[in-house]
Amino acid sequence: MKHDSESVTSPNYNYSVSSEHIKLVRGALQAGDEKFVQELISGLHAADVADIIEQLSHSQRVQFVGVLRPHFDPEILMKLDEYIREEIVHLLSSKEIASVITQLQSDEAVTLYDELDSDIQQRVLADISELDRKSIEFYLDYEEESAGRLMQREMVAVASHLTLGQIIDSFEGGEDLAEGLSQVIVVNEKNQPIGSLSLSRLLQLSRRKIIADVMDRDIKIIPVTMKQEEVAFYFRQYTLTSVPVVEAEGNLVGIITATQIIDVIQDEAEKDLMQLGRVSEPTFSKPIVELSLNRLRWLIVTFINTLLASTVISHFETEIQKIVALAVLMPIVASMGGNSGMQVVTVTVRALAQRDLRKGQVFSTLLKEMGISLLNSFILAGVLSFITTCWYHDMTLGLILGGALMFNMLWSGLAGTLFPVILDRLGFDPAIGSGPLLTTTTDVLGFSVFLGLATIFLF
Fold it and tell me: Domain 19-143, what architecture?
């Protein structure tokens, strides 16, 4: 059976603006054709407009914001890279920023406000209503990256004595309903959560039913002080879509939805990935000098590590001069230990972040990693010893190299597990500190053991 191609609309699977579309926008800006620019961005999602802004030069962004100004969508700002958002905000007046803040969800409004310079913050507060001002001040009482900062106050909380019909009727004309709303929270007379009801079930049941009779009483709650990574863990662990947030007394103050948690998970994963590579900022938007300085501090740690390793090597300078093979072979010990250790560090840091590694599991995990290191080092040491013996016709040298390799890889398994756990227990970020500590010890110990054994058995 044939279909008329003109009468059938194919689904649009393109979720981003093309490079050709961005070129058209650039060309229109260069020609000063604001009308064509408006046509090019008409109907685009806020995320796509933000993508266009990030591809423009600074001068083009100034022009582009001028085009957007009469009908500026606040969501565009929240889709921008943080550094680019700061640049765009400086192009807006305090009144325009205040207008943007009042149109955003409460949690997004506080995120934007928190990024403003202190002088702009004061002007913005003067340009918004007392209600909006109190909402922002309410959020600022909570620590950054806590559930209190993450939650949104737009939610549906109902009394347990209401009928489902009364609740549904209350939705009519509700402009302040939370985005991603999937359930209503049932509260008692003290405004404490006692149950919940999903919207799908709410619409399926009879309007005459009392919500107390049909609500789910097994409701999970989150305190405002909980760290956002812990919140993300509970969402994943219990497959949650939304969770009420309560203060110390147990009264309801907000709600966290899966939409917000997606951002948290992405941010935490990105941060861990960057820190494992000792890179503090994942963005290319910052100036070269600032990015250079951020990376330089970790390169200095590596530089100090190489100086320590060089100091160890210098103590065996005479032995190395006598047997040149030592200089050729000793980098193998350090590099194999370092790479093996980073594998363990990566797995351990991920396990800590995902809450897969708890206090009672540290010893068993340590034994397992030591077992893996022992097996791998035995295989590699055997192969390397054989190659070295054949290459230099010296079995003793081959055995020394194999022994040093086994020791260093066993140490890397031990250190790769313990360093992240210890740093985590001390309150430091294991993703940042584990790598430098590991590479320093594997280099220094690797060279010391290899050259020390060579001194004992070859001289």
Answer: Alpha Horseshoe (1.25)
